[in-house]
């Protein structure tokens, strides 16, 4: 979750700028030219499902304080919630499919995703896609469908 340019996590680099580019010379050279001295990457995920990454850049080398790290993790959680919420929008109606509270429903959706994964015999990312597809196809919020999966009202199979 942390990285510094040109200084690495173990301390300042020495030598010419070319020597300090390390693992990603093309990226590092451009980032340094843009004034970036530290890069931090935070995964956007729901349980085992990876949705993306939140990258933060800073003009000063060095790590994050505990407060900055906590705030960055909160931003990553918020970005995850926004991504999940945006995926629940009905493009034809221009609004959400019912009342959805992603932050509160995340645990139920995560648990239902695991159950769908077992029922349908698919990976977690595919199980979440199946949940989203059925919620969209039936015009229901994913949280309501997740509750139905958890209570056994809705089931998925290998044919879904």
Structure description:
The protein is 49% helix and 16% strand. The protein has 160 residues and is α+β, with helices and mostly antiparallel strands. The protein folds into two domains: 3-87, Beta-Lactamase (2-Layer Sandwich), CATH 3.30.450.40; 98-151, Arc Repressor Mutant, subunit A (Orthogonal Bundle), CATH 1.10.10. Strand 4 (89-90) and strand 5 form a beta hairpin. It starts with a strand and ends in a 9-residue tail after the last helix. A three-stranded antiparallel β-sheet has the order 1-2-3. The chain has helices spanning 17-20, 25-33, 66-87, 102-120, 124-138, 142-151, and strands at 3-4, 38-46, 49-58, 89-90, 95-96. Helix 4 packs across helix 5 (124-138) and helix 4 packs across helix 6 (142-151).
Structural class given helices, strands, pairing?
alpha+beta
For CATH, the homologous superfamily of the largest domain is named as GAF domain
Reported for the largest beta sheet, the result is:
3 strands, antiparallel
* CATH architecture classification of the largest domain: 2-Layer Sandwich
Number of domains: 2
Low-confidence spans: 6-19, 92-104
* Strand portion: 15-25%
Biggest sheet strand line-up:
1-2-3
Calculate Rg over CA atoms.
21 Å
Q: Provide the residue-averaged pLDDT.
A: 77
With helices defined by DSSP (H or I, 4 residues minimum), what is the helix count? Answer: 6
């Amino acid at each position: 979750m942390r990285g510094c340019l040109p200084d690495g996590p173990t301390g300042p680099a020495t030598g010419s700028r070319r020597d300090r580019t390390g693992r990603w010379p093309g990226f590092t050279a451009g980032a340094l030219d843009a004034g970036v001295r530290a890069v931090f990457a935070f995964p956007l995920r729901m349980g085992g499902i990876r949705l993306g990454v939140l990258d933060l850049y800073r003009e000063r080398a060095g790590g994050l304080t505990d407060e900055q790290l906590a705030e960055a993790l909160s931003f990553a959680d918020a970005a995850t919630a926004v991504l999940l919420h945006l995926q629940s929008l009905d493009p034809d109606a221009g609004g959400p499919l019912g009342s959805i509270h992603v932050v509160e429903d995340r645990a139920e959706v995560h648990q239902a995703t695991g159950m769908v994964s077992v029922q349908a015999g698919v990976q977690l990312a595919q199980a979440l896609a199946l949940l989203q597809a059925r919620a969209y196809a039936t015009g229901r919020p994913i949280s309501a469908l997740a509750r139905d999966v958890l209570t056994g009202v809705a089931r998925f199979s290998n044919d879904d």
